[in-house]
Design goal:
About 30% of the residues lie in helices and about 20% in strands. It has about 270 residues and is of the alpha/beta class. It has one domain: Cytosolic phospholipase A2 catalytic domain (3-Layer(aba) Sandwich). Strands 1, 2, 5, 6, 8, 9, 10 and 11 form an eight-stranded mixed beta sheet that branches. Helix 1 packs parallel to helix 2 and helix 1 packs antiparallel against helix 3. The longest helix is centred in the last third of the chain and has 18 residues. The chain starts with 6 loop residues before the first strand and ends in a 17-residue tail after the last helix. The mean pLDDT is about 85.
């Protein structure tokens, strides 16, 4: 008999390290754990959207490995960012052609930051691609995304583990963090100092939400990968997969979440 448990999975941001989320989802699926709702920030929003659309985790990995993302990037003529996030919209439309939260096979919530009001905005209905781009809009690198009268940037600025959309709607919540901070004995320049300070701030808002998770998965060693180190995609996938399998061995109670209904595959 299939379980009626409602299982939520919250996926953090972390640049290309978010590929490890696909390994986590692959391992959970092999254990018979299929999320009934996903929430995500930045890279977690992208991985979550593809999974919720019905793509298998390994299928998404294949897409990532075979796609030249840099050809989609365009410079921005702006004081608020050096690249245009909107130039990537065509790539998202290739794989999320319906562009509609309602058409997803598994419910999804996406977190973004309203840069003017300084608050988190959650999207779970209506147009899909614009909120995903807003959630992934790294401040300073990309121009903010305008949705309605709001200017939005990366959701990880204020909430890098969006468990709130799962609170009260799921029986169990699994939090997954890929934005690990490595130890650093010698920060060599201002760029390194700023990047480390940003990751520390984002990790703080992750760990402040850890208590809201029934299970919390964080693959060790992800901090050694750069946020744009796309050539390490297969390694990152494997890191998430192996850590989830190890986590299950040390936390056998997670087996109680098995036999959840499996989402239908994408067409």
């Amino acid at each position: 008999m299939k379980s009626k448990l409602k299982i939520g999975v919250a996926l953090s941001g972390g640049g290309v390290r978010g590929i490890s989320h696909l390994g986590v989802l692959q391992a959970l699926n092999e254990m018979g754990i299929f999320p009934t709702k996903i929430s995500g920030t930045s890279a977690g929003a992208i991985a979550g959207a593809m999974f919720c659309a019905g793509y298998e985790p390994k299928e998404v990995l294949k897409i990532i490995v075979e796609t030249n993302y840099f050809k989609f990037l365009r410079p921005a003529i702006s004081l608020t960012g050096i690249l245009k996030m909107s130039s990537i919209e065509g790539l998202f439309r290739t794989y999320l052609s319906h562009n509609d939260f309602a058409q997803l096979k598994t419910p999804l919530a996406v977190a973004a930051t309203d840069i003017n009001k300084g608050k988190v905005i959650y999207f779970s209905e209506g147009e899909l691609i614009q909120p995903i781009m807003a959630s992934s809009c790294i401040p300073g690198m990309f121009e903010p995304i305008k949705i309605g009268n709001k200017f939005l940037v990366d959701g990880g600025v204020l909430n890098n583990l969006p468990v709130e959309p799962l609170d009260g709607t799921c029986d169990y919540v699994i939090g997954v963090n890929c934005n690990q901070l490595p130890e650093e004995s010698n920060i060599r320049n201002m760029k390194g100092l700023i990047e480390r300070a940003v990751i520390m701030s984002m990790n703080y808002n992750v760990y402040s939400r850890k208590a809201k998770c029934d299970y919390f998965i964080e693959a060790p060693g992800l901090g050694k990968y750069g946020v744009f180190d796309i050539k390490k995609a297969a390694e990152l996938f494997q890191a998430g997969y192996q850590e989830t399998m190890r986590f299950a061995e040390e936390n056998p109670s997670i087996a109680e979440l098995t036999n959840s209904p499996k989402p239908q595959p994408s067409l």
